[in-house]
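Exercise: predict the structure of this protein bound to zinc ion.
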Amino acid sequence: MIRKQRKQQNRKQIIRRALLLCVLLALCVVMCACGGGNGSGSSSSAESEQSVTEADIEKANEEAKKLAEEISDHEINVLLGSKADIEELVQKKAKELLGTVKIKVSGDYDVNKVGKYDLKVTLEEKKGAKASETFTLSVIDRDQMEGDYSFITDKGFLAEVKEGIMTIDGTEIVNKSYSLPPEYGDGLTTETLEAYQKMEAQASIDGIYLQPISEYRSYYDQMYIHAQNAAKYGGEKADTFSAKPGHSEHQLGEAMDLNSLDQSFADTTEGQWISNHCAEYGFILRYPQGKTEETGYMSEPWHVRYVGEDLAKKLYNGGDWITVESYFGIDSEYRKAALEKEENEAEGSSDDGNEYYDESGNYDESEEYGYE
Ligand SMILES: [Zn+2]
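Solution:
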């Protein structure tokens, strides 16, 4: 009797549980269906918000074309072996031109091989409209270039070589890679002289005595100095501290050697004052300590170069001098082909040179002038 009742209760419980399960399942189905419905509904409304119209595509096309035109107008030229990031360059150009847009550069090129490479820039609008245009990347060998040319440096600066003089952002560059024509220069520039006078006046107030020992030097002065150093120390050693003709900043008329041509000058009160204050007057310490790999020269605590206050303050970098080479993304290395070309050009104008040479006077005591 009791057993029968229990059996009936069990059966009731099973039925109840089965019913509950059915209800739950049904609820699940309904909820899933609703959820799914809602999901697809919301995604379709998102699509309609972001849907790409023909006008969007047209706009993207126009912008891609504008970008490609802008690039080919300025030509993306890079040097053999360049480390410049091409996509970053195009991105920068796109930002200047169009504001924030997504771009992608595709196509093959080899920076170690001279040539012209057709690349594709694909521009993607916020809504996803895409458009592509082609542009040309040229990998050039500067030793093969005739006349004026330009290129983008490893750090993305536009470097322009005009009439044999290389300029980046308004700053003329002279180092082992970039030279000046033999006839260039005729003394310190007015800006350099004025800046120096200001610096000298303040130094004197601070109790520091500045004394220029070498200012402007002509191509032929430098030729003489370098030949002397090469004869005395051997060419390779001489090149670590003495510039070949055409490669000295002194020919620019914007460089000066001050007080002492001795390494210990760096630790003197005057040497310290120059390092700490010259940037305020637009001068830089051109060959800082520990940067030989970048500049190509040993440290020269006496050699200052006028570049203007803006750049000088950036390079000063709170006392941890950044070199011109590192800042602009260029090298400083003699290249055989370039030197041969320069020598031929100098021979072509050697008549003028001899004149200069005679006029330059007594260089018998020039040993102490024998640095870059
Ligand atoms: Zn110097």
